[in-house]
Amino acid sequence: MATIxxxxxxxxxxxxxxxxxxxxxxxxxxxxxxxxxxHQDSDGIAYANEEGLLEDLPVNTKASRLFxxxxxxxxxxxxxxxxx
Length: 84
Fold this sequence. Notes:
Helix content: 10-25%
Low-confidence stretches: none
Number of domains: 1
Number of strands: 5
Structural class: alpha+beta
Strand order of the largest sheet: 2-1-5-4-3
Number of helices: 2
Order of helices and strands: EEHEEHE
Distance between the termini: 12 Å
């Protein structure tokens, strides 16, 4: 299970396709491009669009507050055990 923190403030809880491990293409679809690791701690890992600033994506206020840095676009958060 993962949480997509959308730039518009909404959150979506999603699961991998067909109960398989996460696929790179799924993560890329959710952030709208190539992914970049933006946060990792003892609870999990978060990915955002690698070119989000270049694409002028909107600031993701919720994700920025949670991870202590300015993040743009939609962010995927995978708790530990979900991204092994």
